[in-house]
Specification:
The protein has about 325 residues and is an alpha/beta fold. The protein is built from 12 helices and 14 strands. The strands form 4 sheets. A 7-stranded parallel sheet has the order 5-2-1-9-10-13-14, with helices on both faces. Strands 7-6-8 form a 3-stranded antiparallel sheet. A two-stranded antiparallel ribbon has the order 3-4.
Length: about 325
Amino acid sequence: MSGAAGRVLAISGGIGGAKLALGLYRTLAPDALTVVCNTGDDFTHLGLYVSPDVDTVLYTLAGLANREQGWGRAHETWTFMDALERLGGETWFRLGDGDLALHVERTRRLAAGETPGAIIDDIRRRLGVTARIVPMSDHRVRTLVHTPDSVLAFQEYFVKLRCEPAVQHFEFAGADAARLAPGVLAALADDALQAVVICPSNPFISIDPLLALPGVREALNACRAPVVAVSPVIGGQAVKGPTAKMMRELGLPVSAAGVAAHYRGLLDGFVLDDADAALAATLDVPCLVTRTLMRTNADKQALAREVLAFARALSG
């Protein structure tokens, strides 16, 4: 790590966001990064509480992530799922043998009265992660997908149905009554905060659940550090996942400009790929044009350094 000065708060979903979070983690001082993770995807499966985006960030920063599939643990085995399938159990959402340990332990500790935030804070320490990993809320928020035929729980839409139904809109059930995780508002008000980075995660299902929490937009607008978002869309295509499909179905332009427009009113800066350089002049927010595709760890760190330098420039 280079030990760049200042603290950074990153807002992340799963795979795409975790890549930039890793770049920031390896660029900043050991304890300078806080990653606030989407929990709208959380659900109970096979009696276990599963938090996919939190766990993807945890495994990524701990060096345990499965790089090939992008989720779950590296060197995973599937004895449990194979046995469950033979018994006729539900196997549409696959939990590897090593991954099961995290879900079992989280579920046990939740039943004992601990909060999701306290549990993941202890687990990240045990796995040697010095950055803070914070679920967006200790209260339950559920992302629901409204389609022409039904309202689907997010994992049913995303995994079981492979995002095939058309999206009409999203609902974040419970968000009105939920509260931002303890410490996040204080982090946003910290004089040592260098930047708020909205990672290149899906805006609609990874970032919007957090933005739906009471007071979050106001806190971001009041934050003295620049708020910078990195586009998950490059050249009209999503780097990973259904972002482009969702934008088409929602009637939005499938472009980095469409992402910037979605975040209008929140941003001090926007980062888009070299492939979209021509769009920068059309946007009403300061832009950084650079290579945003992260194939290697070197790519992740290079982008992190550029985003942090951009934030410093925006701060004057």
